[in-house]
Amino acid sequence: MAVVDVHRFAESITCHAWSPDHSMVAFCPNNNEVHIYKSSQDQWERLHVLEKHDQIVSGIDWSSKSNKIVTVSHDRNSYVWSLEGGEWVPTLVILRLNRAALCVQWSPKENKFAVGSGAKTVCICYYEQENNWWVSKLIRKRHESSVTNVAWHPNNILLATTSTDGKCRVFSTFIKGVDTKDSKAGSPAESKFGEQIIQLDLSYSWAFGVKWSPSGNTLAYVGHSSMIYFVDDVGPSPLAQSVAFRDLPLRDVLFISEKMVIGVGYDSNPMVFAADDTGIWSFIRYIGEKKEVSSGSSYSSQFSEAFTKFYGQSKATTANEASESSKSRGGVHDNCINSIVPLSKAGSPKVMRFSTSGLDGKIAIWDLESMQEELGHQF
Amino acid sequence: MAGGGGFVEAEAIIARIETKSTKIESLLKQYKPVEALKTALEGSPPKTLDERCKSANWIVVHRALMAIKDIEGMLNALDVEYYDILMKYLYRGLSTGDRPTCDQCLKIHEKLTERAGLGCILRCLTDTLNTV
Protein backbone atom coordinates (compact mmCIF):
# COMPACT_ATOMS: atom_id res chain seq x y z
CA MET A 1 0.00 0.00 0.00
CA ALA A 2 1.08 3.51 -0.57
CA VAL A 3 0.35 4.70 2.96
CA VAL A 4 3.38 6.03 4.79
CA ASP A 5 1.85 7.21 8.02
CA VAL A 6 -1.57 7.19 9.65
CA HIS A 7 -2.42 8.86 12.89
CA ARG A 8 -5.70 9.45 14.64
CA PHE A 9 -5.64 12.94 16.04
CA ALA A 10 -9.23 13.51 17.12
CA GLU A 11 -12.79 12.22 16.89
CA SER A 12 -13.24 13.87 13.57
CA ILE A 13 -11.23 16.26 11.40
CA THR A 14 -12.89 19.02 9.40
CA CYS A 15 -9.90 20.24 7.41
CA HIS A 16 -6.11 20.29 7.58
CA ALA A 17 -3.04 22.03 6.16
CA TRP A 18 0.73 21.50 6.29
CA SER A 19 3.57 23.84 7.19
CA PRO A 20 6.01 24.85 4.42
CA ASP A 21 8.56 22.18 5.41
CA HIS A 22 5.82 19.58 5.99
CA SER A 23 6.92 19.00 9.57
CA MET A 24 3.84 20.49 11.19
CA VAL A 25 0.17 19.99 10.50
CA ALA A 26 -2.67 22.31 11.44
CA PHE A 27 -6.18 20.89 11.60
CA CYS A 28 -9.58 21.50 13.08
CA PRO A 29 -10.84 18.67 15.31
CA ASN A 30 -14.46 19.46 14.49
CA ASN A 31 -14.71 22.32 16.99
CA ASN A 32 -13.79 25.98 17.10
CA GLU A 33 -10.05 25.41 17.62
CA VAL A 34 -7.12 24.82 15.34
CA HIS A 35 -4.49 22.39 16.63
CA ILE A 36 -0.92 22.42 15.39
CA TYR A 37 1.04 19.22 15.81
CA LYS A 38 4.70 18.60 15.07
CA SER A 39 6.10 15.22 14.19
CA SER A 40 9.34 14.25 15.87
CA GLN A 41 10.80 10.75 15.86
CA ASP A 42 7.52 9.03 14.98
CA GLN A 43 5.67 10.84 17.71
CA TRP A 44 3.22 13.66 17.22
CA GLU A 45 3.25 16.38 19.82
CA ARG A 46 0.84 19.24 20.08
CA LEU A 47 2.59 22.58 19.81
CA HIS A 48 -0.16 25.18 19.60
CA VAL A 49 -3.89 25.55 19.97
CA LEU A 50 -5.29 28.51 18.06
CA GLU A 51 -8.50 29.58 19.74
CA LYS A 52 -10.20 32.62 18.33
CA HIS A 53 -13.19 31.43 16.37
CA ASP A 54 -16.59 30.88 17.96
CA GLN A 55 -17.77 28.09 15.70
CA ILE A 56 -16.37 25.26 13.61
CA VAL A 57 -13.31 26.16 11.60
CA SER A 58 -14.32 25.06 8.11
CA GLY A 59 -11.17 25.92 6.19
CA ILE A 60 -7.44 26.19 6.90
CA ASP A 61 -4.63 27.03 4.51
CA TRP A 62 -0.94 27.47 5.27
CA SER A 63 1.07 29.53 2.82
CA SER A 64 4.44 28.02 1.95
CA LYS A 65 6.45 31.17 1.23
CA SER A 66 5.11 33.66 3.72
CA ASN A 67 4.35 31.06 6.45
CA LYS A 68 0.95 32.49 7.31
CA ILE A 69 -2.10 30.45 8.30
CA VAL A 70 -5.52 31.63 7.19
CA THR A 71 -8.56 30.15 8.92
CA VAL A 72 -12.24 30.64 8.15
CA SER A 73 -15.14 29.55 10.24
CA HIS A 74 -18.90 29.16 10.40
CA ASP A 75 -18.88 32.24 12.61
CA ARG A 76 -18.51 34.31 9.38
CA ASN A 77 -15.01 35.45 10.33
CA SER A 78 -11.54 34.85 9.07
CA TYR A 79 -8.17 35.22 10.81
CA VAL A 80 -4.71 35.42 9.31
CA TRP A 81 -2.19 34.04 11.80
CA SER A 82 1.50 35.00 11.75
CA LEU A 83 4.24 33.42 13.79
CA GLU A 84 5.77 36.05 16.04
CA GLY A 85 8.25 35.02 18.66
CA GLY A 86 7.10 31.43 18.75
CA GLU A 87 3.42 32.31 19.16
CA TRP A 88 0.72 32.53 16.51
CA VAL A 89 -0.81 36.00 16.47
CA PRO A 90 -4.21 36.44 14.79
CA THR A 91 -5.31 39.34 12.62
CA LEU A 92 -9.04 39.62 12.05
CA VAL A 93 -10.14 39.91 8.42
CA ILE A 94 -13.54 41.53 8.01
CA LEU A 95 -15.19 39.45 5.32
CA ARG A 96 -18.58 41.18 5.41
CA LEU A 97 -20.47 37.91 5.27
CA ASN A 98 -23.87 37.21 6.71
CA ARG A 99 -23.52 33.42 6.44
CA ALA A 100 -20.85 30.85 7.27
CA ALA A 101 -17.54 30.72 5.47
CA LEU A 102 -16.98 27.26 3.99
CA CYS A 103 -13.57 27.06 2.36
CA VAL A 104 -10.39 29.06 1.89
CA GLN A 105 -7.29 28.96 -0.27
CA TRP A 106 -4.18 31.12 -0.61
CA SER A 107 -3.45 32.24 -4.15
CA PRO A 108 -0.26 30.88 -5.79
CA LYS A 109 1.60 34.15 -5.15
CA GLU A 110 0.13 34.28 -1.63
CA ASN A 111 -0.83 37.94 -1.93
CA LYS A 112 -4.55 37.08 -1.94
CA PHE A 113 -6.84 34.44 -0.55
CA ALA A 114 -10.33 33.36 -1.60
CA VAL A 115 -13.15 32.38 0.75
CA GLY A 116 -16.31 30.56 -0.35
CA SER A 117 -19.38 31.07 1.78
CA GLY A 118 -22.95 30.04 2.39
CA ALA A 119 -23.98 33.59 1.53
CA LYS A 120 -23.65 32.71 -2.17
CA THR A 121 -20.60 34.97 -2.37
CA VAL A 122 -16.87 34.56 -2.76
CA CYS A 123 -14.57 36.94 -0.84
CA ILE A 124 -11.20 37.78 -2.31
CA CYS A 125 -8.97 39.25 0.37
CA TYR A 126 -5.75 41.14 -0.21
CA TYR A 127 -3.33 42.97 2.04
CA GLU A 128 -3.37 46.74 1.99
CA GLN A 129 0.03 47.98 3.06
CA GLU A 130 -1.01 51.59 3.89
CA ASN A 131 -3.61 50.60 6.44
CA ASN A 132 -1.88 47.41 7.53
CA TRP A 133 -4.96 45.27 7.20
CA TRP A 134 -6.63 42.72 4.92
CA VAL A 135 -9.38 44.06 2.69
CA SER A 136 -12.11 41.85 1.32
CA LYS A 137 -13.74 42.28 -2.08
CA LEU A 138 -16.90 40.31 -2.70
CA ILE A 139 -18.06 38.53 -5.82
CA ARG A 140 -21.80 38.73 -5.22
CA LYS A 141 -23.17 37.87 -8.63
CA ARG A 142 -23.92 34.55 -10.25
CA HIS A 143 -23.94 31.99 -7.47
CA GLU A 144 -27.39 30.66 -6.68
CA SER A 145 -26.36 28.73 -3.61
CA SER A 146 -23.50 28.06 -1.17
CA VAL A 147 -19.99 28.07 -2.59
CA THR A 148 -18.42 24.81 -1.44
CA ASN A 149 -14.90 24.96 -2.87
CA VAL A 150 -12.53 27.43 -4.48
CA ALA A 151 -9.38 26.82 -6.52
CA TRP A 152 -6.81 29.26 -7.87
CA HIS A 153 -5.42 28.99 -11.38
CA PRO A 154 -1.59 29.11 -11.51
CA ASN A 155 -1.77 32.62 -13.04
CA ASN A 156 -2.99 34.02 -9.70
CA ILE A 157 -5.97 35.75 -11.34
CA LEU A 158 -8.51 33.14 -12.37
CA LEU A 159 -10.53 31.45 -9.65
CA ALA A 160 -12.74 28.38 -10.07
CA THR A 161 -15.64 27.86 -7.70
CA THR A 162 -18.11 25.03 -7.15
CA SER A 163 -21.46 25.45 -5.55
CA THR A 164 -24.40 23.49 -4.25
CA ASP A 165 -26.36 24.78 -7.23
CA GLY A 166 -24.39 22.18 -9.21
CA LYS A 167 -22.40 24.59 -11.32
CA CYS A 168 -18.71 25.27 -11.59
CA ARG A 169 -17.73 28.82 -12.48
CA VAL A 170 -14.47 30.54 -13.32
CA PHE A 171 -14.04 34.18 -12.36
CA SER A 172 -11.38 36.79 -12.86
CA THR A 173 -10.12 38.27 -9.60
CA PHE A 174 -7.88 40.94 -11.05
CA ILE A 175 -7.32 43.66 -8.46
CA LYS A 176 -5.64 46.92 -9.46
CA GLY A 177 -2.60 47.54 -7.35
CA VAL A 178 -2.24 43.91 -6.36
CA ASP A 179 -2.09 42.10 -9.69
CA THR A 180 0.01 43.15 -12.63
CA LYS A 181 -1.59 42.99 -16.04
CA ASP A 182 0.26 40.30 -17.92
CA SER A 183 0.11 41.42 -21.54
CA LYS A 184 0.89 37.94 -22.84
CA ALA A 185 -1.70 35.87 -21.01
CA GLY A 186 -5.43 36.29 -21.55
CA SER A 187 -7.37 39.08 -23.17
CA PRO A 188 -7.64 42.40 -21.35
CA ALA A 189 -11.43 42.18 -21.53
CA GLU A 190 -11.53 39.49 -18.87
CA SER A 191 -9.46 41.51 -16.45
CA LYS A 192 -12.38 43.03 -14.64
CA PHE A 193 -12.77 41.89 -11.05
CA GLY A 194 -15.68 39.51 -10.55
CA GLU A 195 -16.16 38.91 -14.27
CA GLN A 196 -17.43 35.41 -14.94
CA ILE A 197 -15.31 33.75 -17.61
CA ILE A 198 -17.23 30.52 -17.91
CA GLN A 199 -20.02 28.60 -16.25
CA LEU A 200 -20.12 24.80 -16.43
CA ASP A 201 -23.54 23.17 -16.19
CA LEU A 202 -22.46 19.56 -16.20
CA SER A 203 -23.89 18.47 -12.88
CA TYR A 204 -27.49 18.07 -11.69
CA SER A 205 -26.53 17.82 -8.07
CA TRP A 206 -24.21 19.58 -5.61
CA ALA A 207 -20.71 20.18 -6.82
CA PHE A 208 -17.62 19.88 -4.61
CA GLY A 209 -13.87 19.70 -4.79
CA VAL A 210 -12.62 21.73 -7.75
CA LYS A 211 -8.94 21.79 -8.76
CA TRP A 212 -6.85 23.03 -11.68
CA SER A 213 -4.19 20.86 -13.31
CA PRO A 214 -0.56 21.97 -12.77
CA SER A 215 -0.49 23.85 -16.08
CA GLY A 216 -3.91 25.36 -15.55
CA ASN A 217 -5.21 23.82 -18.74
CA THR A 218 -7.63 21.33 -17.22
CA LEU A 219 -10.23 21.65 -14.51
CA ALA A 220 -11.68 18.77 -12.49
CA TYR A 221 -14.61 18.83 -10.10
CA VAL A 222 -17.00 16.31 -8.60
CA GLY A 223 -20.75 16.11 -8.31
CA HIS A 224 -22.73 14.46 -5.57
CA SER A 225 -24.24 12.07 -8.08
CA SER A 226 -21.10 9.89 -8.14
CA MET A 227 -19.72 11.72 -11.13
CA ILE A 228 -16.49 13.51 -11.80
CA TYR A 229 -16.19 16.16 -14.47
CA PHE A 230 -13.09 17.05 -16.48
CA VAL A 231 -12.88 20.18 -18.55
CA ASP A 232 -9.98 20.75 -20.92
CA ASP A 233 -9.09 24.05 -22.57
CA VAL A 234 -11.13 26.13 -20.19
CA GLY A 235 -12.19 29.15 -22.19
CA PRO A 236 -14.71 30.03 -24.90
CA SER A 237 -14.90 26.46 -26.24
CA PRO A 238 -14.15 23.99 -23.48
CA LEU A 239 -14.00 20.21 -23.86
CA ALA A 240 -16.04 18.71 -21.07
CA GLN A 241 -16.25 15.07 -20.04
CA SER A 242 -18.48 13.50 -17.43
CA VAL A 243 -17.25 10.28 -15.92
CA ALA A 244 -19.75 8.22 -13.95
CA PHE A 245 -18.30 5.70 -11.55
CA ARG A 246 -19.56 2.77 -9.57
CA ASP A 247 -19.37 3.83 -6.01
CA LEU A 248 -20.23 6.50 -3.50
CA PRO A 249 -19.63 10.16 -4.38
CA LEU A 250 -16.35 12.00 -3.96
CA ARG A 251 -15.73 15.10 -1.90
CA ASP A 252 -12.36 16.37 -3.04
CA VAL A 253 -9.87 15.90 -5.87
CA LEU A 254 -6.16 16.46 -6.46
CA PHE A 255 -4.14 16.54 -9.67
CA ILE A 256 -1.01 14.47 -9.12
CA SER A 257 0.20 15.11 -12.64
CA GLU A 258 -1.17 16.75 -15.76
CA LYS A 259 -3.05 13.60 -16.71
CA MET A 260 -3.85 11.94 -13.40
CA VAL A 261 -6.29 12.84 -10.66
CA ILE A 262 -6.94 11.33 -7.24
CA GLY A 263 -10.45 11.61 -5.85
CA VAL A 264 -11.45 11.05 -2.25
CA GLY A 265 -14.87 10.79 -0.71
CA TYR A 266 -17.46 8.64 0.96
CA ASP A 267 -15.79 5.37 -0.02
CA SER A 268 -12.89 6.02 2.37
CA ASN A 269 -10.46 4.91 -0.29
CA PRO A 270 -8.74 7.24 -2.76
CA MET A 271 -9.63 6.65 -6.42
CA VAL A 272 -7.29 7.21 -9.36
CA PHE A 273 -8.56 8.70 -12.62
CA ALA A 274 -6.37 9.17 -15.66
CA ALA A 275 -6.58 10.52 -19.18
CA ASP A 276 -5.37 8.22 -21.92
CA ASP A 277 -3.43 9.40 -24.94
CA THR A 278 -6.54 10.58 -26.75
CA GLY A 279 -7.52 12.71 -23.77
CA ILE A 280 -10.41 10.56 -22.57
CA TRP A 281 -10.61 10.39 -18.78
CA SER A 282 -11.69 7.26 -16.94
CA PHE A 283 -11.52 5.53 -13.58
CA ILE A 284 -8.39 3.42 -13.23
CA ARG A 285 -8.34 1.87 -9.78
CA TYR A 286 -8.44 2.40 -6.06
CA ILE A 287 -5.11 3.30 -4.49
CA GLY A 288 -5.31 0.71 -1.76
CA GLU A 289 -6.51 -2.44 -3.49
CA LYS A 290 -5.53 -4.38 -6.58
CA LYS A 291 -7.75 -4.13 -9.67
CA GLU A 292 -11.03 -5.71 -8.60
CA VAL A 293 -12.79 -8.38 -10.61
CA SER A 294 -16.09 -6.80 -11.46
CA SER A 295 -18.28 -9.65 -10.24
CA GLY A 296 -17.15 -9.29 -6.61
CA SER A 297 -19.25 -6.79 -4.76
CA SER A 298 -17.36 -5.34 -1.86
CA TYR A 299 -19.92 -3.78 0.40
CA SER A 300 -19.14 -3.41 4.07
CA SER A 301 -21.08 -5.41 6.62
CA GLN A 302 -23.44 -2.51 7.21
CA PHE A 303 -24.57 -2.53 3.61
CA SER A 304 -24.88 -6.28 3.28
CA GLU A 305 -27.23 -6.39 6.28
CA ALA A 306 -29.38 -3.69 4.77
CA PHE A 307 -29.38 -5.38 1.40
CA THR A 308 -30.46 -8.77 2.77
CA LYS A 309 -33.32 -7.11 4.56
CA PHE A 310 -34.28 -5.20 1.42
CA TYR A 311 -34.13 -8.20 -0.85
CA GLY A 312 -35.63 -10.51 1.78
CA GLN A 313 -38.98 -8.91 1.05
CA SER A 314 -39.06 -10.63 -2.28
CA LYS A 315 -40.24 -14.26 -2.14
CA ALA A 316 -37.62 -15.78 -4.37
CA THR A 317 -34.37 -14.35 -3.09
CA THR A 318 -31.14 -16.16 -3.83
CA ALA A 319 -28.64 -16.24 -0.98
CA ASN A 320 -26.41 -13.45 -2.04
CA GLU A 321 -23.02 -14.62 -0.81
CA ALA A 322 -21.26 -11.92 -2.73
CA SER A 323 -22.68 -9.11 -0.68
CA GLU A 324 -22.33 -11.13 2.52
CA SER A 325 -18.59 -11.28 2.11
CA SER A 326 -18.22 -7.95 3.96
CA LYS A 327 -14.83 -7.03 2.60
CA SER A 328 -14.05 -4.16 4.91
CA ARG A 329 -13.95 -1.00 2.85
CA GLY A 330 -11.53 1.25 4.59
CA GLY A 331 -7.99 -0.05 4.57
CA VAL A 332 -6.83 3.20 6.06
CA HIS A 333 -9.80 5.44 6.69
CA ASP A 334 -12.99 4.16 8.33
CA ASN A 335 -15.18 7.01 7.37
CA CYS A 336 -15.64 9.63 4.69
CA ILE A 337 -12.46 11.36 3.56
CA ASN A 338 -13.30 15.00 3.07
CA SER A 339 -9.97 16.61 2.31
CA ILE A 340 -6.86 15.85 0.25
CA VAL A 341 -3.80 18.09 0.44
CA PRO A 342 -0.64 17.83 -1.70
CA LEU A 343 2.70 17.46 0.07
CA SER A 344 5.05 18.50 -2.69
CA LYS A 345 6.81 21.72 -3.54
CA ALA A 346 4.24 24.18 -4.78
CA GLY A 347 4.37 24.62 -8.54
CA SER A 348 6.02 21.28 -9.25
CA PRO A 349 4.21 19.39 -12.02
CA LYS A 350 4.02 16.05 -10.21
CA VAL A 351 2.76 15.38 -6.73
CA MET A 352 4.53 12.44 -5.12
CA ARG A 353 3.06 12.67 -1.68
CA PHE A 354 -0.30 13.78 -0.39
CA SER A 355 -2.29 13.56 2.80
CA THR A 356 -5.95 12.85 3.44
CA SER A 357 -8.09 13.63 6.46
CA GLY A 358 -11.58 12.54 7.26
CA LEU A 359 -14.51 12.19 9.56
CA ASP A 360 -12.78 9.32 11.37
CA GLY A 361 -10.26 11.77 12.81
CA LYS A 362 -7.28 10.28 11.02
CA ILE A 363 -4.72 11.97 8.83
CA ALA A 364 -2.99 9.59 6.44
CA ILE A 365 0.10 10.39 4.40
CA TRP A 366 0.42 8.61 1.06
CA ASP A 367 3.57 8.23 -0.99
CA LEU A 368 3.39 7.35 -4.66
CA GLU A 369 7.11 6.72 -5.14
CA SER A 370 6.61 2.96 -4.89
CA MET A 371 3.57 3.01 -7.13
CA GLN A 372 5.03 4.87 -10.08
CA GLU A 373 5.21 1.80 -12.26
CA GLU A 374 1.74 0.61 -11.39
CA LEU A 375 0.25 3.98 -12.17
CA GLY A 376 1.69 4.00 -15.63
CA HIS A 377 3.12 6.61 -17.92
CA GLN A 378 0.45 9.22 -17.29
CA PHE A 379 1.97 9.85 -13.88
CA MET B 1 -44.79 25.13 -20.44
CA ALA B 2 -45.88 27.71 -23.01
CA GLY B 3 -49.22 26.68 -24.44
CA GLY B 4 -48.93 26.03 -28.17
CA GLY B 5 -45.42 24.65 -28.61
CA GLY B 6 -45.32 22.47 -25.50
CA PHE B 7 -48.65 20.86 -26.23
CA VAL B 8 -47.73 19.85 -29.73
CA GLU B 9 -44.45 18.43 -28.52
CA ALA B 10 -46.20 16.33 -25.91
CA GLU B 11 -48.63 14.97 -28.48
CA ALA B 12 -45.74 14.05 -30.74
CA ILE B 13 -44.00 12.22 -27.94
CA ILE B 14 -47.13 10.32 -27.01
CA ALA B 15 -47.59 9.31 -30.62
CA ARG B 16 -44.03 8.01 -30.65
CA ILE B 17 -44.70 6.06 -27.47
CA GLU B 18 -47.77 4.46 -29.07
CA THR B 19 -45.70 3.21 -31.97
CA LYS B 20 -43.10 1.96 -29.53
CA SER B 21 -45.82 0.16 -27.64
CA THR B 22 -47.05 -1.77 -30.66
CA LYS B 23 -43.48 -2.69 -31.53
CA ILE B 24 -42.91 -3.96 -28.01
CA GLU B 25 -46.09 -6.03 -28.03
CA SER B 26 -44.93 -7.77 -31.15
CA LEU B 27 -41.46 -8.38 -29.71
CA LEU B 28 -42.98 -9.88 -26.59
CA LYS B 29 -45.14 -12.19 -28.67
CA GLN B 30 -41.96 -13.42 -30.28
CA TYR B 31 -40.51 -14.22 -26.84
CA LYS B 32 -37.86 -11.53 -27.06
CA PRO B 33 -38.35 -9.70 -23.76
CA VAL B 34 -34.80 -8.33 -23.74
CA GLU B 35 -35.27 -6.61 -27.08
CA ALA B 36 -38.59 -5.31 -25.84
CA LEU B 37 -37.05 -3.71 -22.80
CA LYS B 38 -34.28 -2.15 -24.86
CA THR B 39 -36.85 -0.60 -27.19
CA ALA B 40 -38.83 0.65 -24.24
CA LEU B 41 -35.84 2.31 -22.61
CA GLU B 42 -34.58 3.87 -25.82
CA GLY B 43 -35.84 7.33 -26.38
CA SER B 44 -37.19 7.69 -22.88
CA PRO B 45 -38.24 11.32 -22.68
CA PRO B 46 -36.62 12.48 -19.47
CA LYS B 47 -36.55 16.12 -20.46
CA THR B 48 -40.33 16.55 -20.79
CA LEU B 49 -42.11 18.02 -17.85
CA ASP B 50 -45.34 16.58 -19.09
CA GLU B 51 -46.65 13.94 -16.70
CA ARG B 52 -48.67 12.20 -19.39
CA CYS B 53 -45.57 11.47 -21.46
CA LYS B 54 -43.80 10.06 -18.48
CA SER B 55 -46.77 7.92 -17.48
CA ALA B 56 -47.24 6.71 -21.03
CA ASN B 57 -43.59 5.67 -21.26
CA TRP B 58 -43.78 4.05 -17.83
CA ILE B 59 -46.64 1.83 -18.90
CA VAL B 60 -44.63 0.67 -21.87
CA VAL B 61 -41.50 0.02 -19.81
CA HIS B 62 -43.55 -1.74 -17.16
CA ARG B 63 -45.01 -4.12 -19.70
CA ALA B 64 -41.53 -5.05 -20.92
CA LEU B 65 -40.11 -5.34 -17.39
CA MET B 66 -42.77 -7.76 -16.19
CA ALA B 67 -42.09 -10.02 -19.14
CA ILE B 68 -38.43 -10.50 -18.27
CA LYS B 69 -37.61 -13.91 -16.81
CA ASP B 70 -33.86 -14.11 -17.29
CA ILE B 71 -32.50 -11.08 -15.47
CA GLU B 72 -28.80 -11.87 -15.85
CA GLY B 73 -29.15 -12.34 -19.56
CA MET B 74 -31.08 -9.15 -19.89
CA LEU B 75 -28.44 -7.15 -18.05
CA ASN B 76 -25.71 -8.75 -20.15
CA ALA B 77 -27.39 -7.57 -23.31
CA LEU B 78 -28.15 -4.08 -22.07
CA ASP B 79 -25.66 -1.28 -22.74
CA VAL B 80 -24.05 0.44 -19.79
CA GLU B 81 -25.60 3.79 -20.66
CA TYR B 82 -29.07 2.37 -20.00
CA TYR B 83 -28.28 1.31 -16.45
CA ASP B 84 -29.08 4.71 -14.96
CA ILE B 85 -32.42 5.00 -16.78
CA LEU B 86 -33.36 1.42 -15.88
CA MET B 87 -32.61 2.16 -12.23
CA LYS B 88 -34.92 5.17 -12.34
CA TYR B 89 -37.74 3.05 -13.73
CA LEU B 90 -37.08 0.39 -11.09
CA TYR B 91 -37.62 2.96 -8.38
CA ARG B 92 -40.76 4.11 -10.08
CA GLY B 93 -41.90 0.50 -10.09
CA LEU B 94 -41.08 0.06 -6.42
CA SER B 95 -43.07 3.17 -5.59
CA THR B 96 -46.25 1.69 -7.04
CA GLY B 97 -46.59 -0.69 -4.12
CA ASP B 98 -48.13 -3.32 -6.35
CA ARG B 99 -46.89 -6.76 -5.20
CA PRO B 100 -45.88 -8.42 -8.47
CA THR B 101 -44.34 -5.22 -9.82
CA CYS B 102 -42.33 -4.73 -6.65
CA ASP B 103 -41.16 -8.34 -6.62
CA GLN B 104 -39.89 -8.07 -10.15
CA CYS B 105 -38.31 -4.68 -9.59
CA LEU B 106 -36.55 -5.86 -6.45
CA LYS B 107 -35.07 -8.84 -8.23
CA ILE B 108 -33.76 -6.68 -11.04
CA HIS B 109 -32.57 -4.04 -8.57
CA GLU B 110 -30.42 -6.56 -6.76
CA LYS B 111 -28.66 -7.67 -9.92
CA LEU B 112 -28.35 -4.18 -11.31
CA THR B 113 -26.75 -2.86 -8.14
CA GLU B 114 -24.19 -5.64 -8.29
CA ARG B 115 -23.26 -4.56 -11.77
CA ALA B 116 -23.58 -0.83 -11.68
CA GLY B 117 -22.70 -0.19 -8.07
CA LEU B 118 -24.02 2.31 -5.59
CA GLY B 119 -23.10 5.16 -7.91
CA CYS B 120 -26.04 4.21 -10.11
CA ILE B 121 -28.45 4.52 -7.20
CA LEU B 122 -26.86 7.83 -6.22
CA ARG B 123 -27.41 9.18 -9.72
CA CYS B 124 -31.10 8.27 -9.53
CA LEU B 125 -31.57 9.91 -6.17
CA THR B 126 -29.71 13.13 -6.92
CA ASP B 127 -31.10 13.73 -10.37
CA THR B 128 -34.21 15.77 -9.71
CA LEU B 129 -34.25 17.35 -13.16
CA ASN B 130 -34.58 14.27 -15.35
CA THR B 131 -37.18 12.18 -13.57
CA VAL B 132 -39.14 9.34 -15.13
UniProtKB/TrEMBL annotation, chain A:
> Which compartment or compartments is the protein found in?
Cytoplasm, Cytoskeleton
Q: Alphabetically list the UniProt keywords.
A: Actin-binding, Cytoplasm, Cytoskeleton, Repeat, WD repeat
Q: Does the keyword Repeat apply?
A: yes
Q: Which GO terms describe its biological process?
A: Arp2/3 complex-mediated actin nucleation
Which domain of life does this protein belong to? Eukaryota
Annotated GO MF terms: actin filament binding
Coarse class of the protein's main subcellular location: cytoplasm
Which Pfam family is one of this chain's hits? WD40
Q: What's any one GO cellular component for it?
A: Arp2/3 protein complex
Task: Please list the residue ranges covered by the WD repeats.
Answer: 50-91, 140-172
InterPro entries, per database record: ARPC1 (IPR017383), WD40/YVTN_repeat-like_dom_sf (IPR015943), WD40_repeat_dom_sf (IPR036322), WD40_rpt (IPR001680)
Q: How does it assemble?
A: Component of the Arp2/3 complex composed of ARP2, ARP3, ARPC1/p41-ARC, ARPC2/p34-ARC, ARPC3/p21-ARC, ARPC4/p20-ARC and ARPC5/p16-ARC.
| General function of this protein | Functions as a component of the Arp2/3 complex which is involved in regulation of actin polymerization and together with an activating nucleation-promoting factor (NPF) mediates the formation of branched actin networks. Arp2/3 complex plays a critical role in the control of cell morphogenesis via the modulation of cell polarity development.
Q: Which family does it belong to?
A: Belongs to the WD repeat ARPC1 family.
Please identify the protein, giving its name as recorded. Answer: Actin-related protein 2/3 complex subunit
Q: Which organism is it from?
A: Raphanus sativus (Radish)
TrEMBL record, chain B:
**InterPro entries linked:** ARPC5 (IPR006789), ARPC5_sf (IPR036743)
**What superkingdom heads the lineage?**
Eukaryota
* Any Gene Ontology CC annotation: cell projection
Chain segments annotated as transmembrane:
none
Alphabetical GO biological process terms? Arp2/3 complex-mediated actin nucleation; regulation of actin filament polymerization
Compartments, as annotated in UniProt: Cell projection; Cytoplasm, Cytoskeleton
Keywords, alphabetical: Cell projection, Cytoplasm, Cytoskeleton
Free-text function comment from the UniProt entry: Functions as component of the Arp2/3 complex which is involved in regulation of actin polymerization and together with an activating nucleation-promoting factor (NPF) mediates the formation of branched actin networks. Arp2/3 complex plays a critical role in the control of cell morphogenesis via the modulation of cell polarity development.
Q: How does it assemble?
A: Component of the Arp2/3 complex composed of ARP2, ARP3, ARPC1/p41-ARC, ARPC2/p34-ARC, ARPC3/p21-ARC, ARPC4/p20-ARC and ARPC5/p16-ARC.
Q: Which family does it belong to?
A: Belongs to the ARPC5 family.
* Name of the featured protein: Actin-related protein 2/3 complex subunit 5
Organism lineage string: Eukaryota, Viridiplantae, Streptophyta, Embryophyta, Tracheophyta
Encoding gene per record: LOC108805186
